[in-house]
Amino acid sequence: MSSVSRLRVLGFVVTSACLAVGCNDLKKIEVGATCLLNSDCNQPLVCTMSKCHEGCRSTVDCPTGQICTRVGSTGVCQLPDEAKCTANVPCGPLLICAPDLRCRAGCNTAAECMGGQLCVQNVCAESVELDVSGRLPQMAAPAIPDAGTYATASPDALSTATGTTTAATETATSTATVTTTGGAGTGGTGTGGKVGTGGAGAGGTGTNTSTGVASNIVTFKNGAAVGPMTGWGWIALGALDSVTDPTCGDSRALITAAVPCVASTNWNSPNALCVTGYVPVVPPNPSADVWSNNWVNIGVNARETGDPIGKAYSSIAVSFSSAPTSSFRILRHRRGDPVGADYCCLGATSGTPVPLTRFNTACWDNSGSAFVAADAANIEFVEVSVPATTQSAITLTNMCLNSITFGE
């Protein structure tokens, strides 16, 4: 064959290859490289969390040391640098930081996990990752100094089974200390669901000496309320839910329903109470027990002494950010009412005043008792709550309670 013929054949081969797979494919990238679209990656890789991944149906499809992880509707082999999480290193989108400090897919049943995996503590896991009790090992996050984290006195731990509280012992830097007593957190509700009893509700020992900017506006300073409320902020959640931020104490341990924070709460902002966590979807026609164990709340006590607010306001406006539109409500607890007997309000928008008489003990259908205006001075604490829904799971990413304004 002549040299000209050879060049013609070579040109035909190159041209055919470009027509078959596209000349741009010569520039496609490998596992772990940054991408925007699946077409940016070499086939059959997929672009997930802005990186090229190997697709999978179970962990046996993945390289040794990687776990097949559901991200949205796609199963991918989780890269080593995506697996670990701490209080300062959150997980990627759609994943949550599990008790073993590994980023995992949330779940209600094993059917939501990849092949062969179990749904344990509402996250997907391989059976070989569980301890002898059949649970993921609880690991404390390392204590890493962080100038942007603010430790505050936390709620007491409330047992939903017995209704008893365990006093916190955190001492704030001050010349005097006051042991605070707060109210109980309350569970969220779904449409047609029942109010669930919730987690923690009291501050630790400490003194809040801050002064407010206005007599009717509550702001926050390092986790403490400033203004007409002077108690501490806190987090409560159901047994089916998880929170990765804030964390608890010097060890930066995860806050859970089983192990609530009785030390100090490490907030990520000096002027707001913010939470990052996960509320799984509930099945159709769920039991009351499922509703009462599936919610995440941010709360603040009226007084660090445990006393109610002491003034009869007529309305409340809560300023919040990054809250889900599908499931959000404001809760208030009246002094003397049983744990979980809270007054709630649906459909509130950030910063919009809501008459206190609009609150109801069964706000999802207003079949409960309406709040009486004369009892406004007896408000013990205020919460914002994200209960589960039957439509989809809810990922909370730095949802914040920014301020509370009371109307005269």
Layout: helices, strands, pairs:
Layout: H1 3-21, E1 46-48, E2 51-53, E3 68-71, E4 74-77, H2 80-83, E5 96-97, E6 103-104, E7 118-120, E8 123-125, E9 150-153, E10 157-158, E11 165-166, E12 178-179, E13 205-206, E14 217-221, E15 224-226, E16 233-237, E17 242-245, E18 247-248, E19 253-254, E20 264-267, E21 273-279, H3 288-292, E22 295-301, E23 315-321, E24 329-334, E25 343-346, E26 354-355, E27 379-387, E28 394-407
Labels describing this entry:
408 residues; 2 domains; 29% strand; disordered N terminus
How would you explain this protein's 3D organization?
With about 400 residues, the protein is mainly beta. It is built from 3 helices and 28 strands. It folds into 2 domains: about 90 residues, no CATH class; about 260 residues, no CATH class. Strands 14, 15, 17, 21, 23, 26 and 28 form a 7-stranded antiparallel beta sheet that branches. The protein has a 5-stranded antiparallel beta sheet with strand order 16-22-27-24-25, with no helix packed on it. Strands 9-20-18-19 form a 4-stranded antiparallel beta sheet, with no helix packed on it. A hairpin with a 2-residue loop joins strand 1 and strand 2. It is elongated, with a radius of gyration of 25 Å. The N terminus is likely disordered.
